[in-house]
Design brief:
Blueprint: H1 9-17, H2 31-46, H3 58-71, H4 76-93, H5 102-111, H6 124-130, H7 133-144, H8 149-169, H9 179-199, H10 205-223, H11 248-257, H12 260-272, H13 276-280, E1 287-288, E2 293-296, E3 305-308, H14 314-333, H15 343-348, E4 368-369, E5 376-377, H16 383-396, H17 405-418, H18 423-430, H19 435-438, H20 455-458
Antiparallel strand pairs: 1-2, 2-3, 4-5
Length: 459
């Protein structure tokens, strides 16, 4: 590592932890110092020729990783070797910061590259149950695989819940001799946990399936175990609830009561049948005023689609973009970090985050810290703000139903069917993979001429 006397404090901390005459566990004596030197040079180039005074975040390591893969075209094993060295440097640099616990640092040392440094099978219970190593591992692998932040959080949460349940149950040691035996033991543990959340906690079937997918990801990515057919576990009770739908009259009263600031977005939920997350993530380029449509990118299931842009929202949306442009110009003048882009887009279009067309249509007034790159960016509005506004508007309008943002989407679909639109058209606008999903709205629509008269009314 570089030895200049004017090195920043974080580099001095890391240098002090490098063993004299050898390399830290898991690192190569010859190549690890070379990779660290290259990473430090990379940081200098990004910081006007000087190392940053603040400890670099793991986002910088991710960027260095991408450079080695995409620009230098290095083989995976060499990139893995570099990443282990860089992660050690950042771990060591953070080792004395109060927000980095000793337990977390010990875990990171062992799970830095899960696919390369699996724990000894004799230590697997301590690794998984006591140290929480699997949760750290899941977060690392989810980020490297480009999973969405909500998906990453879900995976980590379920892995932690399994670990705590495991500890409470006092499951015996699984320090077995082979990966095959460990896999069988862990499969039984997953099945027991799925039974617990279904029978004791009473979760929905979708929640149980989410837990199963998260845990399979954890064992596959972090321990190299491919769960086979799981032993029988009790499935959660499947219920098919009819969607809550507002009548056209209720929609009118409701929209009149929506807070002015969020009114455009809420009207777009109803007018275009968008999910809340889809509306919040809209970017300037997704509004096609010329064709009267909204392009939904990477919706549920990773699909793109077009839906209708209400003519009555063209003016309000243009006014919203005018306000966004003021914030955008201010951020560029101050040299702020660009808007968040998914990893694949960031690699393909490295300058796109600072271009106007990629900005969010509904950005926050204040800059917020990106939990992954640690950069301060202008993120989109939060879901809770809209959820609260919708609930307040429903109460003000005197609507005695459980009204959530998703009710706007339900109402959009139902009202189109009531107006005579073909169910396949509605399916396409909603982005449903199967028409059977769309058909549920047939059960709640107000179909003219098809009312059943109650015998009580005829008596």
């Amino acid at each position: 590592m570089k030895s200049e006397s004017n090195s920043p404090e974080w580099l001095c901390r890391a240098r002090a932890l490098w063993p004299s005459g050898s390399a830290p566990a898991g690192l190569d004596m010859k190549w690890s110092p070379e990779w660290i030197k290259k990473f430090l040079t990379y940081l200098e180039r990004r910081n006007d020729g000087a190392l940053p005074e603040e400890t670099p975040g793991y986002g910088a390591a991710d960027s260095f990783d991408r450079m080695l893969r995409d620009s230098w075209k290095l083989e995976d094993w060499r990139v893995d070797s570099a990443r282990r060295a860089v992660d050690w440097l950042l771990d060591a640099a953070c080792s004395h910061r109060p927000e980095s616990s000793a337990a977390e640092m010990a875990v990171r040392e062992r799970v830095r590259l899960p696919s390369m440094e699996l724990p000894a099978w004799g230590d697997i219970e301590e690794y998984f149950v006591e140290k929480g190593g699997m949760e750290v591992c899941v977060r690392i692998v989810a980020r490297r695989k480009g999973r969405a932040l909500k998906t990453e959080k879900s995976y980590v949460t379920w892995t932690g819940r399994l670990r705590r349940w495991w500890k409470v149950q006092g499951v015996g040691s699984v320090g077995l001799e082979s990966r095959e035996q460990a896999g069988e033991e862990l499969e039984r543990a997953i099945s027991g946990f799925l039974d617990h959340i279904a029978v004791v906690e009473g979760v929905a079937v979708a929640t149980q399936r989410q837990a199963l997918n998260a845990l399979i990801f954890a064992f596959r990515a972090c321990l190299g175990i491919e769960p086979g057919l799981l032993p029988e576990y009790r499935g959660a009770t499947r219920g098919r609830a009819l969607p809550v739908v507002l009548s056209k009259g209720e929609i009118g009263r409701f929209l009149d009561c929506v807070e002015l600031k969020v009114g455009v977005l809420v009207k777009l939920l109803y007018g275009g049948g968008l999910r809340l997350s889809e509306a919040l993530r809209l970017r300037v380029k997704d509004l096609d005023f010329a064709h009267g449509s909204v392009v939904v990118r990477d919706g549920k299931g990773g699909k793109d689609r077009r839906t209708t842009l209400p003519a009555g929202l063209v003016g309000p949306l243009r006014e919203q973009l005018r306000k966004v442009r003021v914030l955008f110009d201010k951020d560029r003048a101050e040299g702020r970090d660009g808007v968040y882009l998914p990893n694949k887009l960031e690699r393909k279009y490295p300058n796109a985050s600072r271009e106007w067309i990629w900005q969010y249509v509904f950005p926050t007034d204040k800059l917020v810290k990106d939990p992954r790159s640690e950069a301060f960016r202008r993120h989109h509005w939060g879901e809770r703000v809209i959820q609260r506004a919708v609930k307040d508007a429903a109460m003000a309008a005197g609507i005695h139903k459980r009204v959530t943002p998703h009710v706007m989407r339900h109402s959009f679909a139902t009202h189109l069917l009531e107006d005579g639109y073909d169910i396949r058209t509605v399916q396409e606008l909603l982005g449903h993979a199967s028409v059977e999903t769309t058909m549920i709205y047939l059960h709640v629509m107000n179909r003219p001429g098809m009312h059943v008269k109650s015998p009580l009314d005829g008596s």
